[in-house]
Amino acid sequence: MSTDLSTVHRPIAKANGLPNAHYTDNTIFAEERDAVLHASWAGLAVGADVPEKGDAKPIEFLGLPLLLVRDNDGELRVFQNTCRHRGMILVTEPRKIEGAIRCPYHSWCYSTKGKLVATPHVGGPGQNAHPDMDRDSLGLIEIRSHIWRDIVFINISGDAAPFEDVHADLIERWAEFDKPLYHGGADSCFDLSVKTNYKLAVENYCESYHLPWVHPGLNSYSRLEDHYNINEPGKFSGQGTLVYRQFEGENGECFPDFEGLSQKWRDGAAEYITVYPNVLLGAQRDHAYVIILEPTAVDQTVEHVHIYYAEPKVNDQMRVKNTALWREVFEEDIFVVEGMQKGRYGPGFDGGRFSPAMDGPTHCYHAWIASMILEHRKKQAHAAE
Question: Which helix (H) or strand (E) holds 116?
Fold first, then answer.
């Protein structure tokens, strides 16, 4: 099955959104997995998931078994969670690696850097080596990864341009926030399971158009007219506000600001940007957050939310309350993205239209997705010749 994406690239006033099949069809979902999620820098996890040396966490991403490991030198690595002997899963739950990563099947062992270090009885009883078993070529398969703002990005295909090049403009835009981020801990993260395609969560996050009706509390002080669009075609998109209200404790205290911020941010600016294809970021003067969208099916997504601060220790009660407030905001969006998912099964829907004034960020995202898919189809066609 293929889809017509010609109308997606039209100027916004005449463009349609992605066709229904990109939200409902498993064949198209598989194509998009290869063309978009595997070919670009997709968000997988955060460094705070494995904070200490030897920490390991198994993660499944689009059916691919992966292992997030903080090696014994403190470097974060991503491996296929697969033994090179008979393909056994190595780690089944988060844990500390004591000594080596040991396969539970035949006890082949790997260092936290992925090197095969032990092959017991591989040459027969009591013979732990064999001339035809080259340990240097049988280490764990490492997945290309990059860490930015504590987010673990992976490029599964291995052939995307370097992360720093792909996202140079966004990195420069937020250069003032290029300083340590401190995860708030267990009470500063949560997951939301949503019955929707991951792209609909992105589309909703990109724009502020829905604020008066979906987030009336937020809109009461950071109004629709206080927001601006962020449109960077082919790169990233989102929204910003000129009226960010800091959360205050019972005695009027606030979280500490990130040091060295310009007047723009201290006056109340905040920005909410999507790092294509599946990471949602919030940057504010006193805390930040990341939402990693995990596509688990064509119509199922898990939103992994993590909140960060400018200092390693902040007021406990305020931190817990802040998490609850953000959770309330993000939960307000669930009925919208699930409703759009249901609406995508309407056969007469043509992908919808975009408000030229309000929907620029969403149109940018659709056009980027379409470009990635069309480039993939071109490569597939050339390979078949």
Answer: strand 116-118
